[in-house]
């Protein structure tokens, strides 16, 4: 009965509110993802210079690189749940505003703690945009082809943003203007907020469900504790890491209990009985722990073991991220030919092969040795990103699309945070010689490739638990 009332409210709202054109809606949401990913990957392009400009210690530099992913991971699920219950446009516009504020703080920072705070705020704001963007586009289209195009362009925007971030910061760093990219990001965030407010209709608020404040507090506290533990572990601060881990276990266990017993849980437990939903999030975990973790470490490896500058390393990484952006557009017609589950499985399998092609480096190896693996992994990652965007919406009820996007991206970024920590620890060595660094890279390339291939096997197995109707729908 409640779902019917919600559906009726949504239809009534849609009938009285002017709709944005599909093209305009897609441009604004894709631009928001592109800008968020520019901010996310930017410090990879000038991390050493940024550390010098802010006087950052090695520990502070770790937080500079990790802080935005922390903000994203702890906010995505809460943002998605709140948006579905209180209006997606409201959360999207607020997210763009928060992102703008965070970018300004980064631009004016003169010490590491202020810059890290700005990056955390950027992550929270970006979560509001990422969790709601695809749901807002869904309000202005019903055609399956347009939904597939939305997922493809969303994946393209993600790839282009990741590719452009290190290049943008690296170029401005050459001119000694490291803060300029953050002013540009602030301007872009403000423009997106204004455009979205005048463009999108507000989605119907669910007046029959109270916000799950207890769940939100427990989840946020648990994820913050877990991510702090990971960052501290990367700095070999074992006591702080163990304390953070213990707090994370307790608070996340409390979150699970609150979701199982609460009257209005943030995450509907029945979703986890859908095989295709579980499969989509398993694919997100494999993506984060595999290709994103290795590529996040790649710039460091290229600079230390292969002697490239930060800008050169960012340009090499573009072979992966840029090709992923291209393939995400090219596969937009896949929805009419293959299921979302098949798209995820194939994307993971080929990505895994690409990662394995990156191993086997010897002391005489040049950057050219990495090109085939980067291109194969990049092209497949584009297929994968578009599939994740597609399934995040397709495997949840229409009124919960923001939650679906939030859960999938939380899984991806949380797994990426864990994965890059493991990769950094395994690849690091007290010896600075090239042979040791190459051996560490070879080991983590095999590890991440194997994890990705395991994800490719698990996706169809998990999806098989869905009913035939659910499998056809997704």
TrEMBL record:
GO molecular function, one term: transmembrane transporter activity
Membrane topology: Multi-pass membrane protein
Annotated Gene Ontology cellular component terms: plasma membrane
Transmembrane spans: 20-40, 60-79, 91-117, 123-140, 152-175, 181-200, 212-231, 237-257, 278-305, 311-331, 338-358, 370-389, 410-429, 441-464
InterPro entries with a match to the protein in the record: MFS, MFS_dom, MFS_trans_sf
Coiled-coil residue spans: none
Source superkingdom: Bacteria
Keywords for the protein's UniProt record, in alphabetical order: Membrane, Transmembrane, Transmembrane helix
Main location: membrane
Keyword Transmembrane helix: yes
Major facilitator superfamily (MFS) profile domain span: 25-467
Subcellular localization(s) per the UniProt record: Cell membrane
Annotated PANTHER family: EXPORT PROTEIN, MAJOR FACILITATOR SUPERFAMILY MULTIDRUG TRANSPORTER MFSC
UniProt protein name: MFS transporter
Organism listed in the record: Halostreptopolyspora alba
């Amino acid at each position: 009965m409640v779902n019917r009332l919600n559906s009726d409210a949504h239809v009534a709202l849609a009938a009285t509110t002017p709709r944005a054109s599909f093209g305009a809606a897609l441009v604004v949401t894709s631009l928001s993802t592109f800008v968020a990913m520019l901010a996310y990957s930017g410090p990879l392009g000038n991390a050493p210079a940024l550390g010098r400009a802010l006087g950052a210690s090695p520990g502070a530099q770790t937080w500079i690189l990790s802080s935005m992913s922390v903000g994203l991971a702890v906010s995505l699920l809460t943002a998605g749940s709140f948006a579905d219950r209180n209006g997606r446009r409201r959360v999207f516009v607020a997210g763009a505003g928060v992102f703008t504020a965070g970018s300004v703080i980064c631009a004016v920072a003169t010490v590491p703690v202020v810059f890290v705070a700005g990056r955390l705020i950027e992550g929270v704001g970006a979560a509001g945009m990422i969790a709601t963007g695809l749901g807002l586009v869904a309000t202005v289209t019903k055609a399956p082809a347009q939904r597939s195009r939305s997922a493809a362009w969303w994946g393209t925007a993600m790839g282009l943003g990741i590719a452009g971030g290190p290049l943008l910061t690296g170029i401005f760093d050459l001119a000694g203007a490291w803060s300029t990219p953050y002013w540009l990001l602030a301007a872009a965030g403000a423009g997106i907020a204004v455009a979205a407010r005048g463009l999108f209709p507000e989605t119907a608020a669910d007046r029959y469900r109270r916000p799950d404040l207890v769940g939100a507090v427990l989840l946020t506290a648990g994820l913050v504790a877990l991510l702090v533990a990971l960052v501290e572990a990367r700095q070999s601060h074992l006591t702080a890491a163990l304390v953070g881990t213990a707090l994370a276990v307790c608070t996340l266990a409390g979150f699970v209990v609150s979701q199982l017993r609460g009257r209005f849980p943030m995450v509907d437990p029945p979703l986890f009985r859908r095989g295709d939903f579980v499969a989509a999030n398993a694919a997100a975990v494999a993506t984060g722990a595999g290709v994103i973790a290795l590529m996040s470490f790649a710039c460091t490896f290229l600079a230390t073991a292969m002697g490239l500058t930060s800008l050169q390393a960012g340009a090499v990484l573009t072979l992966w991220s840029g090709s992923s952006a291209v393939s995400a557009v090219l596969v937009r017609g896949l929805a009419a030919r293959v299921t979302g589950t098949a798209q995820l499985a194939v994307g993971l399998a080929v990505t895994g092969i690409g990662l394995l092609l990156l191993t086997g480096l010897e002391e005489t190896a040049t950057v050219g040795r990495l090109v085939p693996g980067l291109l194969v992994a990049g092209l497949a990652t584009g297929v994968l990103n578009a599939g994740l965007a597609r399934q995040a919406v397709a495997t949840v009820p229409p009124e919960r699309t923001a939650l679906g996007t939030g859960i999938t991206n939380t899984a991806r970024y949380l797994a990426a945070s864990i994965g890059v920590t493991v990769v950094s620890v395994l690849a690091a060595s007290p010896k600075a010689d090239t042979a040791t660094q190459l051996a560490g890279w070879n080991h983590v390339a095999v590890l991440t490739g194997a994890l990705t291939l395991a994800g490719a096997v698990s996706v169809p197995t998990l999806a098989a638990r869905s009913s035939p109707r659910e499998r056809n729908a997704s």
